[in-house]
What does this fold into?
Amino acid sequence: MKVIITFLRLLRTAFVLARHDALIPAEYAGQVPWFMRLLGWVSRLFAVRATNKGWAKNPGERFANALEKLGPAYIKVGQILATRSDMLDPEFTRGLSRLKDQVPAFSRDEAIKRIEKEYAKPWQEIFTSLSEPVAAASVAQVHKAQLLDETTVAVKILRPNIHAKMAKDIDVLRMVAGMAEFFVPASRRLGPKMFVETAARAVTLELDLRLEAAAASELGEAAEETGLFRVPTIHWAYSAKNVMVLEWIDGTAFSSDALLTDPNINRKALAVKVIQSFLTCAFDYGVFHADMHEGNLVVDKDGELVLLDFGILGRLSEAEQRFHAEIMYGFLMRDYTRIAEIHFEAGYVPAHHTVEDFASALRAVGEPIFGKTSDQVSMAKVLLQLFEITDIFDMKMQPQLIMLQKTMMQAEGVARRLDPEFDMWEASRPVVEASMRRELGPEGRINDFLADLRRAQKTLKAMPEAAETLAALAKAWAAGEVDLSKPNAITKPKSLRRNIALVALGALTTLAGVWAVGQI
It folds into this structure.
């Protein structure tokens, strides 16, 4: 029954898009294959009456209207697309921009009900004032308020029934992913199912504002140490699952057109900060804001970059931090052979291909765009070329890195809007070079050595158990209970071999560790 209901929701999705002429918009019908043009023509039969009522002429705005009706998960997709005017028609992304922070809000009365339910007390016992909604997004909205001590704060409140709505949206996306893998076998390489599960996990964390408060606090530590950005202070006494209270920030939202004309704002420097704050967090701290669309970024009255909305946090392991830093460093140095070697070392390219061939393919992507500013590069063409390369070399999408790649696209899109001549390479260089000095220099080598010692310690802890197993086996052999000449005489040969290997490895590691310590 659940499958049938989800399929009906999928049909509803297609119908809503068709009603808004957003399935295959008429403006772009000439740019798609004939069968898609036919599908678009049929879909517009359902949109005729709606269009006559004066609906938006901008295809991006029509798409935004459809996404708002479909639900929060779809709005998230629109927010990502809205930052990529370099990849999509600028007119289309302009129409989508209303999704960044202008999603229809729910009423103040409903907000008060949710506050009082969360805290089990009248809202006047917490706040002296509570404004109408000042910003609304796909998952929550924000009100300006004052605490009893007259501190001005922002109150973030989750939308009513958001958990159930988001779960339904994710079910539809799961079905779409499953259908894609079944009917389009070539899509399996991209792992649409894994992509949806990655998104579902992120959404689950986003729907608990206590976790968002913790994420904001964690990024706040990185902000304080780097000085590249600010994070609002969390009022922990009022942190709850559905309501969060944090410092109120006065400033100009990145989604505002005023940001592009204000003479007091250094947009070029701000664009650099957007990229450097993202890369520094990812490469140096292994944690980053994973929803950096323009609705979540503000420049305060002092010209500082402020990050908001920490519902989605991305993380990288130490190996992934080094992997991506080395790739970017390789592009900066135009060392395509090293970039290719890193991909092979990580197992991202199957071994039946050669490093030389993959390096040549990367050169074909990197050389035409090296040193070019954003107004000289078509990111749509670059991404298409990269997609073709991943196909040629049988590369599978890595779900753990999807969030990083998505956020990098968002951050670059924001930077390009601030500065059309933005140079991604030069903005990235200081962060990447510092990361490489740390990872490949003395500090990195010492950290690697300490990590090896920790692994050796775990091996040594396993040695007593392994020795007991060997002793028991020897005793059973001596008693004639086990005949080692027969292949199946030992019931758990793999476990035995593993324990023997652990003993040998532990001894060798101990000797190596003692020797290494003596060399320091």
User: Anything to note?
Assistant: Confidence is low (pLDDT under 50) at residues 490-494, 496-520. The radius of gyration is 27 Å. Residues 255-440 form one domain.
